[in-house]
Design brief:
258 residues, alpha/beta, Rossmann fold, 9 helices, globular, binds S-adenosylmethionine
Length: 258
Amino acid sequence: MSSAAQRWADELAAWRIDPDILARAPENPYAFPPGLFRAAHPESTTPLTERARAALPDSGTVLDVGAGAGAASLPLAPPAGHLVVVDTQPSMLDELASTASGRGLRITRVDGEWPGVADQVPVCDVVVCSHVAYNVPDLGPFAQALNDRARNRVVLELHSDHPWVPLGPLWQRYHHQPRPTGPTAELAVAVLREHGIEPQQQVWERPAPDLDGEALATYVAFTRRRLCLPSERDPEIADHLAAHPPQPRRSVVLWWDR
Ligand SMILES: C[S@@+](CC[C@H](N)C(=O)[O-])C[C@H]1O[C@@H](n2cnc3c(N)ncnc32)[C@H](O)[C@@H]1O
């Protein structure tokens, strides 16, 4: 029987896009649109922010890995006085930096891939990592490095199954190929346990994104890019999404204390 870490890596590898389809993709299907990942208003609360705030001293520090536009960490300030944000996609951190500056908030920005850049990052009171795990084949060392940079607590959130699962029927329609369904958050927990991390867990229903006007157009283009299709297909993707709007999804918040 293979280890959980090996199964996690193998199941993620099964999502690899057929090289012929990828070669014809006019745009990068893996890029994230910052506008869809904007932080909610400063006091917004989710299970992740509740678990993080519970371990955060006044004026404390937060490290957000795979921070994107700051949806997980910006609502933590205050009480946090300083955010350290890490991401591989500069346009996401540009968006985060612009929001932080509008709120008069101090951030330290680290452009790069976790855990490779971990030694450029200080130990912080709380480490958050929201909706990044399914991008990470080598999840054990990734989580271990989060653990090593946390003074009090790590809070990691991921969907209960792979974020591309809802795209499966459209992939089948356009490319006539089935898509995988694994891995799951349950397997992620098994990987953490193999690394000596025993997380607590809370499952919740993350609401469907609020899509109107510009957000809807961005979501349509995001979906179409993920399908490796050209922009001429936007109208039919929009029709499909009107008939099958995104649904609330089960999300799992994992946390552990140092
Ligand atoms: C789905 S977005 C989530 C963004 C944000 N955490 C949120 O909850 O809205 C995933 C983000 O993780 C980043 N990312 C993926 N793998 C990463 C890695 N190994 N190191 C740093 N950033 C990573 C991506 O560039 C992207 O901005």
